[in-house]
Amino acid sequence: HDQMIGPRGTGVLVRIADAHFLLTATHVVDVDLEQHSLALGRYRTAAPPIPMRSNYIYTLPDPYDVTAIHLREEAVADLHGHYDFLSLNQLATDDRPRQGSWYVVLGFPESWTQIDVSEMSIATDPLAYGTGPYRHHRGELPDFDPKREIALEFEREGNVGDLPDVQLPTPHGISGGGMWRIRAQGANERPWNADDVRLVAIEHTWNPGLRVLRGTRIGFALRLIRHVMPELGAAMDLHYASAVEPAIIGSPVRIRRS
Fold it and tell me: I need a labelling partner for 176 at 20 to 30 A (CA). Which of 17, 92, 111, 148 fits?
């Protein structure tokens, strides 16, 4: 808004062939674009945010809650030097959360954000939370579909054994952030390598009662992109064969321009 500035959520940058995208949760960008403008903050720098003007926004509504923003060349040029874009070989569409798998959820909590209205700037710090898959031992998640979502444990307390009073922030603000598989089940037979890390989902929901974070599998974000930009299908097929289907049955795609 012209008179106000505030955080909306987190996002993940991905490159497919020559196209660049910001992936996030749909509710993060569900604003009146005639009254509000979207911008990308610059991590650990005091430089002004990067305006998100004239970018196409492709969204899938509930229950997917995932959006892909096709970035214009000007925004991509501004982002280079501040951020890296993931390539397709850093995404995993076939993740199976099991006992022994290890994940990190990365996002920017609102409670760790400082806003300077006079300077129209936002300073924030990331939360990188290591966790494992939710085993449904505290109850069943409402409307959970394991083919569509990944569910991970999120305990705000008891994370630091010798500091029992340490409490994590509420995860408001990390929506749209990445859920990253750090180690798959059965990978303990060999040393861990940073090349093992894969983006597997986009976080969208916190269920506080069950202490769970939920995210849409990354394959649905790729299906969304393929649905609106079929020319990128060949690049996806090189990596995933038939894992990224071109059609999204029964899910209307909303297209807007920022």
Answer: 17
DSSP assigned state of 27: G
253: Cβ contacts below 8 Å, ≥ 6 apart: 58, 59, 60, 224, 227, 228
Q: Write the burial class of residue 58 (CB in 10 Å: 0-12 exposed, 13-18 middle, 19+ buried).
A: buried
Owner of token pair 């089940």: 185
As a whole number of Å, the end-to-end CA separation of the chain is: 13
Structure token pair of residue 85: 């874009």
- What are the residues whose beta carbons fall under 8 Å from the beta carbon of 11, sequence distance 6 or more? 22, 23, 24, 28, 40, 69, 176, 177
pLDDT digits 0-9 by tens, 203-215: 999 999 999 999 9
CA distance linking residue 236 with residue 221, whole number of Å: 12
Q: State yes or no: pLDDT of 1 exceeds 50.
A: no
SS3 content of the chain, % helix, strand, coil (to 5): 15, 30, 50
Helix axis angle, 218-228 relative to 233-240, nearest 10°? Answer: 150
